[in-house]
Amino acid sequence: MGRGRWARHWSVPLVVNVLLGIPGVVPFWLLWYLAVNWPLAEAGWTVREPTENDGMALWLVIVVPVVTLYGLIWWLANRPLRHRTALAPHTYWLLSLTAPLLPTAALFLNS
């Protein structure tokens, strides 16, 4: 496999999913905030935000539509792209699930 073929196999899914990860920062942060303040805090693994007293129901009204919309956009972008690439299915889906996390990880590491 030559250098050009490798780039064609990896570059388009990687770029598309990293670009999807830029607006994905919002749903990823919402999921993290929800997890830190409720189930992880109840388990004693994190400390709940002291000013968070609105309850979980209000957050679910916000989080569910945002995460659902992002997941739908991610799926609609990746489903046809998967059929156009020569990557093995498990490799493609692993790449497409981890690449959108890169912008969020960059923000966490720089803060």
From TrEMBL:
Name assigned to this protein: Integral membrane protein
Organism in which the protein naturally occurs: Streptomyces massasporeus
Superkingdom of this protein's organism: Bacteria
Keyword field: Membrane, Transmembrane, Transmembrane helix
Entry's transmembrane regions: 12-36, 56-77, 89-109
